[in-house]
Each structure stands twice: as structure tokens, then as C-alpha cells.
Amino acid sequence: MVLGVDVGGTKVAVAAIDGVTATHAMEHPTVLISTDALLDGLEHAVRQVIEVAGQPEAIGVGVPSQIEYETGTVESSVNIPLTGVPLREELGRRFGVPVFVDNDANCAALAEAHIVGARHLVMLTLGTGVGGGIVIDGLTFRGAHGLGAELGHMTINPDGPACPGNCPNRGCLEAYCSGQALERDATELARDKPDSPLASRVGREGEVAGRELVSAAEEGDPDALLIFENFARMLGVGIGTYVNVFEPERFAIGGGLCRASHLFLDRAVREAGFRALPALWRRVTIALAEGGADAGVIGAGVLAALEVARDRDTEKSHVTTTEGIE
Questions:
Q1: Which of the four, 25, 217, 246, 300, has the lowest number of CB atoms within 10 Å?
Q2: Is the pTM of this model over 0.85?
Q3: Helix 35-53 vs helix 87-95: angle between axes, to the nearest 10 degrees?
Q4: Is pLDDT at 306 greater than 60 in this prediction?
Q5: Rounded Cα distance, 171 and 157, in Å
């Protein structure tokens, strides 16, 4: 039995994971006042699940941060105070079992691959920013040090707008296909057209909120629909490029913006189809993610289970080799 832990900016979710099924799930608010307080709150949440589910063989943890995977050290963390923390070592000491730490989008992609039974999968998570993960032959691709697969920061227009996230780039996918990008574009258009219906949706802080933009588009506002048209086109450019590079059998779209997928997904898929190599495009399925709200915690648990299995295989191989020598 393994535990999965999904650490977000607002909540910490913990569950016992059996295959791709989460049980004994609990959630607690994320404590952000300090690193120590965050770690103590995380420990409290995990111990509550251990009390009802039993002692785990290992624990997987997903965090919205860049992780040096081999050591489980947080390289950078924008929304939670974990930068520089050797999280794998710290949590291993607290719980006395192996702990494996990865980026939360990597965990979500791993969960999706195992839920739908895909060995080769690319997943984009569209929310405040753009994240994602890559699964190759059933395992997460992370690059040389575990910091790779930052799918949201692939450039699709070198002269485009500055990335709204923690990125020095311009014209990357996050600059066009994130919640922040949608709100930026809606606000700029409303300011340029003060007599437009979209301008009437500007809030107290002088910006058009994402939910207001979605509502305007659903009501047929041509300005709002134009913004989603551009969003969809750029998303399609990204999808087509990733299909050409990775040739996945499945391409999943997840994240909070999927609640508005009826405003952009069909157009994005058409655009991707224009740009992907035909032989690759015929072999890929584009779909909304099926993991739902539990994807992060399930993926963290799957990560722990895979690492435990790998360690067992390594140990068996070592024993077999030693016996052969003797």
C-alpha cells in the first residue's frame, strides 16, 4: 500500500492508492505562512490517513514546483514556500518510509496514462498557467535532472507577449493559453473598446475575470469569442508540435480551463490537425483528461508504486547476479 499526496496552493490532498483507486482520502488547507508550518501541516494530513489506512510502503508527493528528481529537492516554487527544501529527505525522515517527489503536472500525466491504459501520453494542464507531463513507455519523462518537460514554456511566437508566469520567455504557450493570458487579452480589449459589452464586465480591480469572459463568450459576445478563437488557434499550434515531437498514442487536456472546453477544444484540434504530420496525427487520440480532481493524488501514489517496484527489480537482479558469481 502506498500513499499519494497532492500539495496545492490552497489544499493538501492525501489518499491511500491501490492501482488507480484512491481511498481514505482527506483534504486540509495548505499552510503557507512558512516552510516549517507547511511541512508540519503536510505531516499532520498524512498521519491522519495513516491512522485509518495503515503504514504505507512508500509515499509519493506532487508539488507545483520544479524538482530535482534524484534528490527530491525543490529547485524553485512560486506559490508555496518550498524553494531549496530537500523535500524527499525531510519527509522520509518524518515518516520513516521511502518518499518520492515530483512536479504535480508530471503526477497528473502519470495518473492519466495509467487510468486510460496509454503507454505513450502527453498531457497539458490549462489553468492559471500551463503545465504538463510526458509519459514514455509507461514512465515519466523528466529530462537529465528531473527539471524538464516544462511544456507551457515552449515558444510558439518569438515576438509574442511576455510570459505571465515565472519565465523569462516571450510568446510561449503559457503567454497565450493560460487563464492569466485570457484575462490579459480580455482586459486589453475592453480598455480599447470602452463601449463594448466586454467593457461592462470589467471588475473593481479594472480587469475582466476569467469567469466573466467565459460567460460573455457563452452569450455570443463577438469580442469574447474572438479571444477564445485566438486561444484555440495557439493551443492547436502547441498540440500539433507536441504530436510531431513525441508521437503519443493519446494527448490529454486537463486543468481548470477544461470547464470551458466547449469554447476552444474543437477549434484547437482542427488547428493541430492542419499542422501535425499526417502519419502521426492518424495515430493519436485527443481527449479531455479523465483523471478528474483526484489525478494529482493518484499520480503521486502511482509514482511511489512504480519506484517501489523498480527498487525490488533492482534488488532481485543484484541477488541473481551475486548468486551467479558464487
A1: 25
A2: yes
A3: 40
A4: yes
A5: 5
